[in-house]
Fold this sequence. Notes:
This protein has helices at residues 4-10, 18-41, 92-192, 216-224, 264-277, and strands spanning 240-246, 252-259, 292-296. By secondary structure, the chain is mainly alpha-helical. The chain has a three-stranded antiparallel sheet, with helices on one face. It is rod-shaped and about 195 Å long.
Amino acid sequence: MxxxxxxxxxxxxxxxxxxxxxxLALLVHVLLIAALTWGVNWKRSDxxxxxxxxxxxxxxxxxxxxxxxxxxxxxxxxxxPQAKIPPPAPTPDVxxxxxxxxxxxxxxxxxxxxxxxxxxxxxxxxxxxxxxxExExExEQKIREDLAKRxxxxxxKKVEAKKQEAEDEAKQKLAEAxxxxxxxxxxxxxxxxxxxxxxxxxxxxxxxxxxxxxxxGGKVRAKVKPNIVFTEDIAGNPTAEVEVRTALDxxxxxxxxxKPSGNKAWDEAVIKAIIRxxxxxxxxxxxxxxxxxxxxxxxx
Length: 300
């Protein structure tokens, strides 16, 4: 059997730090053995025996075997479905907290309901105030309109009163003028009675008549009739009377229908004929009577 010296010669060469490592390993083993010994014999009453060992040479170590590939383990079988476990009953502290939270929410809801009610009441009050203001505004507007209507009615009454006063004044002036004219005519009539040449039934104020001669009407019709343009058939022989005013030289100033014939076309034809005539003939005394009333018949 080979000796220890031969084994050391055949062993691997020692490196410089092997002694230190060996010492530390020995110390660890000693401590481990001491711990195991104390753990086994700590209940015994006899004194614990301690052992000491020293190792001065390294123990040869064999190489570890090569790793062998092992097949992967089979997949685990599916676990059976587990029944649902109801949650544990709440503890008294949890019940108290839930009750307090419930009370807090209920109190909050009551506060919100009160706020909503107060807000609705305020909105209703504002609406009523606004409606009241609108009603008062409409009332004031109506009062202003009534005052304006009254003022307008009073102004209209004043205007009407002034107008009536002016009319009354004009009528009075006309009446006074007519009365004055009648008075003057009476004075002239009285003054001319001594030299009057009229008949017993005469009502004029002049000393002698100044009307047209008996043949003057025929002269006027002879001058105006050629200017009448009328081609319509007319029943009967209606008369149209026209008042004509002239200047001293006989120029026609105006013409006015004072008595219609009943046929508008004939009346218009007569007026147009007088306008076309422009001047009236002179009478036997060289004058042109004005105003004069002329009668026109379609069958004359």
